[in-house]
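re the bet — no i am not wrong, look at it urself. input seq straight from the record:
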Amino acid sequence: MESTHIVKIAQELNLNGKQVAATVTLLDDDATVPFIARYRKEMTGSLDEVVITAIRDRIAQLRELDKRREAILKSLEERELLTDELKEKIEAAETMAELEDIYLPFRPKRRTRATIAKERGLEPLAELLFEQEDIDPIKEAEPFVDSEKEVETVEDALAGARDIIAEWVSEDADARAKMRELFHKTGMITSKVIIGKETEGAKFSDYFEWQEEISSAPSHRILAMRRGEAEGYLNFKIAPSEDEALHLLEEIFVISDNDASEQVRLAVQDSYHRLLSSSMETEIRSGSKVHADEEAIRVFAANLRELLMSSPLGQKRVMAVDPGFRTGCKIVCLDQQGKLLHNTAIFPHGSSGQRDNSGAEIEFLCKEYNIEIIAIGNGTAGRETESFIRDLDLPEGIAIEMVNESGASIYSASEIAREEFPDHDITVRGAVSIGRRLMDPLAELVKIDAKSIGVGQYQHDVDQPSLKQGLDDVVVSCVNAVGVEVNTASKQLLTYVSGLGPNLAGKIIDYRNEKGAFKSRDDFLQVPRLGPKAFEQAAGFLRILDAPNPLDRSAVHPESYGVVMKMAKDLGCTVNELMRDENLRKKLRLTDYVSDRIGMPTLQDIMDELAKPGRDPRQQFIAFKYDDTINAIEDVKVGMKIPGIVTNVTNFGAFVDIGVHQDGLVHISEMADRFVKDPNEVVKVQQQVMVTVLAIDLDRNRISLTLREKPQP
């Protein structure tokens, strides 16, 4: 069966079987996706993380199908119901739905109208009617009238027979497959408000009278209707045209035109109304939910990747400000590594005296700690605090940057923050998080549950294990793409390094605290419980920036150090010289170093690393500044063209922070002067944009924006 799966996946993903087989073998050997993509290109044919992840998920799905197949075969065999023909059908089933359809007639079931009718001895009558020969149903039913079996009349007998036929119809695998296809292709999702809930459920007003084809309904609308139903404001159903559904079933089961056929027709209609339609709707609801979840997770994951990979400021001395009105602004000063040096509180929005004292305090701290940049959280009082600080007489060269503080409060109240800053309250921890987020967004954001970062849509409504898997994949991908400096990394950051996890990350921190900084990658093997397998998976992604061996600062894997040393030896130079001198590297003929273990893809990666060892793939930091004339929604006017930062991208558009504590929405129809199917084609989270104001709704606190060059009138 496994070889069949390999062929199937290869066909689905347009790959060759060897690529899939090699990838599955590596995954089964506990190799991580980043490791396979980066260091096993020869085995996989240079597959990237997206394809490797697709292979991982599909083989897991197919293996789950196999487990269910085995359970069904075992159940049928134990009950002596398994025939060669049935076994062949079960083994040929390619989807869970197909498999369950085949098993449905044999599944142990509760007492139904059909089972009661069978207990009353009416199955022979049902079989006779189902053959639809030219008989008199009433006459044929008379022998089955038996008051002891509670079959009092001929109509009771015929009704019981129809119940049996209705169940046969609903359990017929071919009929279910065709009905499922009909629901998928032409099913309409219809949503209505529950009478009396109009005011209370106003946020779902778009769906009070709504209808569209389920096949084209976007994920955000499906999830919105499901939420409205779950909260008790909406009712929605999914069904095709009843006439079309009944016609399909009658074409299958009504094979004559006589009195017996009329009984079958009545049974078919009953089967659809009472059994099949609800069963199919449940399936389609479930399937549409899975599809909607997948799409929502895809959007969330894409946004999270952009946020995690947003430009780092780098090692600078930072003053971070967590702004506030009544409780004041919490100030922290951090060194280049993000270490907390000082904290205090100021009240720049209070009395004149408090303002003067606050200004003097900031000016003093900037000089005292040689501050290079001031990071201000973009929450309540953020713009007012920014304006206050910009008016101060600060040392020349100090930049001021607004920072998206979404999730900072989650971190500040977490066990991680309490462990890191046991002697400081949540306001200090929150300010530290704001400053560090500017220095290195990735290193700081991994400390927060990704769901709390605020770049998804309906993240609490989707399947939570699938969401966690999808977001964890993104975090792992980003952390390993950037690489981790092992001597300064937090436990949370190390946790996402290929092959480590929380236990080994903790062991690395303990070793670092007890033995001091790692001097070489070989030292990793001294960490308790970090064996050869974990070393293989992790070593290439861990950096030691001041290591004596320059390769320990790069993404060159230790397993390839030998070939680099051979290159240097062949040129009569050191590895350091080889890395510094491009002309030396140009003298190398890579084909001379191809072996059974190392091919051209890895050799090319090595050359790229020698040229730029440990290069950070993230973009260079670009400062951003809001429009000084806009601080509140009341300052915004239709027609204004203003700068903003994209905070979230959804299927229906993008949200943009323009500095008024309320993000504006660029609807998908306003993304560009051309048709846009996916907003991610146009903008990404954290992208700096210029937007034009289309409309303002002060009552609902909504701002409509456009990215069009020529906004529509």
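see?? The radius of gyration is 33 Å. told u. also Residues 259-308 form the longest helix (50 residues). so pay up
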